Amino acid sequence: MNDVADFIRRLPKAELHLHLEGTIAPATLVELSQRHDREPLTQAEAEALYRFQDFSGFLDAFKAVTNRLVGPADYELAAWRMAQRLAQQGIVHAEVYISVGVIYVWRNHDPECFEPIFAGLEQARVRAQRELGISLYWIFDAVRHFTLEEAARVFRKAIEMRCEYTSIIGIGLGGDERRCGSEPFRELYAEARAAGLRLTNHAGETTPPEAIREALAIGSERIGHALSAVQDSELLEELKVRSTPLELNPTSNVRTGVCASWAEHPLRRYFDLGLLVTLNSDDPAFFGSDLEGEYMLAHTEQGFTRDELRRLASNSIEASFLPEVEKASWTARIESIG
Fold it and tell me: What keywords tag this UniProt record (predicted)?
């Protein structure tokens, strides 16, 4: 088992479905609370926030944590701590969701409030590249169950800021799928695509396969979760033919109660069918399993061999938004790992 753990750590990997806010560990939350709360959280109180029973409970916990991200220094701290942990796992590249939609709503719809926050994130990104050798891209995440107008602010801010920051690689649509699908965002996706942004979408986590079809129909290039695709054989074939990357998050799905167990997660079926699947941790501080842990669980719970784990790592690079020359370089490195 130690040999497999060492092999996983040495594999160059990309993480493609990772929420910045979900990387904030209880100790960092205490530090943020000391900065901002009149009565700061204790370590025990912080840890209690991360214990929840279902998806709705997770959303409540996520909000409690993000409430304590106030200014640029807070976001810089969160991003730097995230980058340190990623590098320790052999992750060489990450494409990180930032809940810009949440920031706008909490800052009274002021689009300009985000730019100082983003400057803090950029400081951490540049430092991570320089000191840790890890590359980071940012994905601006709108919240589907807020209003369409609020989502438009997020999309258009990404378009505006991408002119200056090439690290802003794409847009995403998170939030509660049960309350809003993808179709209302069709025009915004088209605007983003025309501006050169890449298109991701959370779909099929808490909703049936039709939600994934809807996400594909508006132009989504990568699908986050895609759990319910397993219920529709025609959809699985379509995903295979399209070579649509799937950002799978097994531990997340188990912890939020949308999947019964790791062993029952459709990762293995998707992989065996030849779909372009990637492993991701989603919100590792909340779910107690980072990307290294997800690879190990794929080995112990679903019997993934070393060669299959290598393929998952290659998939993560292939499905990333990195330039082709960088993909080729990392893929060659992956193949060289013994």
Answer: Hydrolase, Metal-binding, Zinc
